[in-house]
Amino acid sequence: MGIGVYFIGARGNVATTVITGALAIRSNRATGTGMVTEGPEFRGIGLTGLPDLVFGGVDVNSKPLHEKAIELGEARVLPSQLAAALRDELTGVDRNIQTVQGFAYGAIPKGGYLAELTRIEERIARFRTDNSLDRVIVVNLCSTEPHFAETADFDTPEALMAALPKAGGGFCTGTLLNALAALRQGCAYVNFTPSQASELPALRKIARDSRLPHAGKDGKTGETLLKTVLGPMFLARNLKVLSWMGNNFLGNNDGAVLDAPASKDSKLRQKDVALREMLGGAFVRTDIQYVPSLGDWKTAWDLIHFEGFLGTPMTMQFTWQGCDSALAAPLVLDLVRLVDLAWQRGESGMLAQLAPFFKNPLDGHTHDFHQQMAGLYAWLDTVRAGQTRERK
Length: 392
Ligand SMILES: NC(=O)c1ccc[n+]([C@@H]2O[C@H](COP(=O)([O-])OP(=O)(O)OC[C@H]3O[C@@H](n4cnc5c(N)ncnc54)[C@H](O)[C@@H]3O)[C@@H](O)[C@H]2O)c1
Known about the structure:
Layout (H helix, E strand, L loop, with lengths): L2 E6 L4 H14 L26 E7 L5 H10 L7 H4 L1 H8 L2 E3 L13 H18 L4 E6 L16 H7 L10 H11 L3 E4 L9 H9 L3 E4 L6 H14 L3 E11 L2 H6 L2 H19 L3 E8 L6 E11 L5 E11 H21 L4 E2 L18 H23 L1
Parallel strand pairs: 1-2, 1-4, 2-3, 4-5, 5-6, 6-11, 7-8
Antiparallel strand pairs: 7-9, 9-10
Nicotinamide-adenine-dinucleotide binds next to helix 1, strand 2, helix 10 and helix 12.
């Protein structure tokens, strides 16, 4: 028995780093640096241990996980010796990862959307029974998909299910179907990407009615993390931000995917939300450019033009060079543990306490990172208080 973690995009950079990292930590080859839940505040609250996590999922890429880990070792994303040391364990996880066809946005999947939904549900069900799992958390780590225009069909589960058999191309993305399948299969769901998924009204209702937790969207790992730390500083000092220009250079597969205009649009929608909502009238622009030689080392260069006392103009610039997968992977492990804890406590629906992990937290009330962390710590206090009551 264990907790299933089922990745959509299980052979991608982030998923491979999560799986290799968890295997390395549980065999004492690495520590949990970068994992929020390894901090002192989280001690003794009954978080699921990494050895209890059983990984699996799907990918359109058939490259074995072990080979992908070697590649990431050569690129210095992972310590170079880990892939060799964990070869057997990685091969074991690979047995739980299925190569699937997927479908491009705009195309109709083989047999139609309903047939695709059924296939996805059967795979998840098989993962659960094959591994005798207590609970399964589906985590979306798939390539970013275009933003589609939702219609009234997405307002209720009934309307959505009625529309699926007759829907034409471009009705929805694979991510939407995966999220729907996860919830219909009684799984918790986390959307680490900018794609549309469980935030749509029909899916929110399924999660509420089925008493399932979900969280999203788009992991906050680098430049946006800094924006949500620095933005509140300018506000607190009553310094007026006039313009905030962000340039991101990225060279991994995620960067290549985001080079396509429709996927880039989907990502930029999430990246600018925080600053726009925090800074009101400031001129905010972010761009992402694909620079192959940078690999996973995403470089963000930001220029902040602001006004001080008596209208005096000033600027601030910063350069952030982060290894994208090494920043994202520990947060994915945190999200799995925290969603599982909330689930065990009977919490369901969108989990607002997980706001600090996302660029666009759907039910969070603030973009201020420190306020978001205060919300998470306040939730921990209620968890502890509940546990104390149960012990009495
Ligand atoms: N790394 C970060 O810091 C970060 C932060 C926030 C969000 N994200 C998002 O997380 C996701 C994963 O990032 P990554 O760097 O691992 O990207 P990646 O390109 O390395 O991995 C994505 C994986 O999804 C697979 N895939 C594509 N279409 C699929 C489909 N239809 N079904 C199943 N699998 C499919 C690809 O083959 C690939 O293995 C991206 O959407 C990215 O935007 C990453």
